[in-house]
Amino acid sequence: MRFDTVIRNGTVVTASDTFVSDVGIRDGRIVALAADLTEADEVIDATGLFVLPGGIDSHVHLDQPSGDGIVMADDFDSGTRSAAIGGNSTVLAFCMQEKGQSLREALKIYHAKADGKCHVDVSFHLVITDPTAEVLGQELPALVEDGYTSLKVFMTYEGLRLRDDEILATLDTARRTGALVMVHCENEDAIRYLIGRHEEEGKLAPKYHATTRPVAAEREATHRALSLAEIVDVPIVIVHVSNREAMEEIRRARQRGQKIAGETCPQYLMLTADDLDLEGLDGAKFVCSPPPRDKVSQDACWEGIEQGVFDLFSSDHCPFRFDDPEGKLNEKGKRHFRWIPNGIPGVATRLPILFSEGVMKGRIDINRFVAVTSTNHAKLYGMYPQKGTIAIGSDADIALWDPQERVTLTNEILQHGADYTPYEGQDIQGWPVRLLVRGQTIMERGSVVEAGQGQYQSRKRSNLIADTNSGASVRP
Ligand code: URP
Ligand code: ZN
Ligand code: ZN
Predict the structure, then answer these.
(1) Is 22 contained in some domain?
(2) Does residue 342 surpass a pLDDT of 90?
(3) Where are the transmembrane segments (predicted)?
(4) How many CB atoms sit inside 10 A of residue 19's CB?
(5) What is the distance between the alpha carbons of residues 63 and 440, in angstroms, rounded to a whole number?
(6) Which of 94, 222, 318 to mutate to test ligand 1, by most ligand atoms within 8 A of the CB atom?
(7) What's the pLDDT score for residue 468?
(8) Cβ 315 under 6 angstroms from ligand 1
(9) Binning pLDDT at 50, 70 and 90, where does residue 1 land?
(10) Is there a contact between 58 and 123 (Cβ–Cβ < 8 Å)?
(11) Nearest ligand for residue 210 CA
């Protein structure tokens, strides 16, 4: 058999297995896993390297409108470039519905933003901010059929949050159509109350972003979201979990028999609220929601990854420039934390951080690394086994990792649009040295070598939906 490309002598890793094998690729797909594959136009020597499924980052914000005068630091060009540098072959970005806008209109805008500009494959989650009868009754069912099979709803942020009755209606549509709903769990009314108290006390510095969004606001909303999902009888994903109490809500819901997926992110392993309390306004660099907590919460999130409470490790890449009037230090943001745009960059650092801190330090094995950074994302968001694994017939989305490569993180190497990384100076062991997307080398040794090759991915329904027995699970 002749191949377009053969990857030779590498150690192939999937979510379940580790084995030495050559990988034969033809027409963008993996067509052979065997020893001594030689007949190829291109032979890549992977001696000493891990051959992993390309990372799938299912929580990425790119080119989203972010409030008056605020501009997100990455569009689909720079954001997917940075994703490739960090070993990702697919990103799932958000398509944000504006109030009063139809979902089709929103999708037209986001496709125009993305088409032809992406360096890795891309797909959209639909953010539902205006769940009218028409959106839920007509548009959404048709869009799910068209391959837009996941949604996000917010319980916080003025202008984005849904009321409980709106969440119930959205969950009900998801149940009927087979869509998977991601929920941002923080109690907006509690946060607004605390912001009011902070204002009365003149507490306006960046560090107060964290004290106005306490664990209790996240835990309560997590519990409520899980309860609403139980009542409707539909699986959901609890995204960006920052602490043990919210995590235990997921564990308990699963024990009650609910189908739930949980996600955590690098910031909840690596940062704390103390990072928001730096000299001057530097703390603004770390403002994101939920906020980073403390060392005990970091340990809890590690436990959740190790024990399988979290299925997903995503970046929640939501980049803003720091020293910029359109970014973190906009005029109002300099004076009051509530105007600092929420979010931090991280699409390039997600995988190296977990590889270095998790695999190299012995907290998780490399199969778990593959599961939480790629395979589970593909399964949960309807792309498996086309993506997320190394198997005959799968897309040849492959990252070659050198476990010996040592890198000190600096902003320059990440090639995103932000003017900082929260992880500046962090020492990393293990780095993605080459990335193939559908068989084509896209990134090699820190440079994108083939630009604009990313394709839009229509998706199937989630395995969490397909696996769900639709018998009633609502308890009296
Ligand atoms: O602070 C964050 N996480 N910004 C991104 C938007 C979101 O809530 O995911
Ligand atoms: Zn969110
Ligand atoms: Zn997010």
Answers:
(1) no
(2) yes
(3) none
(4) 11
(5) 26
(6) 318
(7) 58
(8) no
(9) confident
(10) no
(11) 1
